Amino acid sequence: MAVGIFDSGLGGLTVLDAVAKRLPNVPLVYLGDSAHAPYGVRTPDDIYNLTTAATQRLFDAGCDLVILACNTASAAALRRMQEGWVPPGKRVLGVFVPLIEALTERQWGDNSPPREVAAKHVALFATPATVSSRAFQRELAFRAIGVDVEAQACGGVVDAIEDGDMILAEALVRSHVDALQRKMPTPDAAVLGCTHYPLMAEVFQDALGPQVKVFSQANLVAESLADYLDRHPQMVGPGTEPAFLTTGDPKRVSSRATQFLRRQITFTSA
């Protein structure tokens, strides 16, 4: 009855934590590809190959459903995976869907024509690969009209968070917000388009100001997954044991993860 959660590193732990609180009876198998992080500066083919390998490892661990808790993988690899790679009886979902559902205030299954929504000026903070893919803008355009999206590639933030250097991460976030505001001085809403960024959500909010509504993904993904499993209970896989897997150094990754979640997390080699 396991569900898999994948991220290029530790950022997806923000999603895992929210999902664990929302679905406490579902065993979660987490795989962080720390040996190859960050994904945000890799080519689309690189991201696709690494993401499919990691997803297959989660299928092998007894997960029939895998959440790509990585915006870069969701942007650069998910559609290609769904169109030609995902085996029968398996399912891979990304993290854009719940975010756009919340931003446009409409359900993903609502296929009515695009319409105007409350947010007119949206700031997107994401990795360079997510920004260059324009996947967020493409999916948003299917559901909303009249929304101006200004994207800011936040180089260095993921590396700083993975290294545990939160002072550097905060300085970089403030620098990227400043760069965004030079292009879009008064956004209505801001999207934290990387699952590492919720760890810096308060800094983003402080730098943007209280008038900007900040959309962070973890709780949105957890609610969306709970709704999905209500509708598709057969997608809960046969695995019964929770696990934390990494392609990196388990001892180092465990130490960082424990700091992030403020509880003991023990990773083993994937």
Give a short synopsis of this structure:
With 270 residues, this protein is α/β, with parallel strands linked by helices. 45% of the residues lie in helices and 18% in strands. It contains twelve helices and twelve strands.
Write the layout of secondary structure elements.
Layout: E1 2-7, H1 13-22, E2 28-32, H2 44-60, E3 63-68, H3 71-76, H4 78-84, E4 91-93, H5 96-104, E5 115-116, E6 121-126, H6 128-133, H7 135-141, E7 144-145, E8 148-153, H8 157-162, H9 166-183, E9 189-192, H10 201-208, E10 213-215, H11 217-231, E11 243-246, H12 250-261, E12 268-269
Parallel strand pairs: 1-2, 1-3, 2-11, 3-4, 5-7, 6-8, 6-9, 9-10, 11-12
Helix pairs in contact: 1-11, 5-11, 9-10
What does this 3D model show about the protein?
The chain has about 270 residues and is α/β, with parallel strands linked by helices. The chain has 2 domains: about 1-95 and about 220-270, Rossmann fold; about 95-215, Rossmann fold (3-Layer(aba) Sandwich). The chain contains 12 helices and 12 strands. A 6-stranded parallel β-sheet has the order 4-3-1-2-11-12, sandwiched between helices. A 4-stranded parallel β-sheet has the order 8-6-9-10, with helices on both faces. Strand 1 (about 1-5), helix 1 (about 15-20) and strand 2 (about 30) form a beta-alpha-beta unit. Helix 1 (about 15-20) crosses helix 11 and helix 9 (about 165-185) packs parallel to helix 10. The model has no long low-confidence stretch (mean pLDDT about 95).
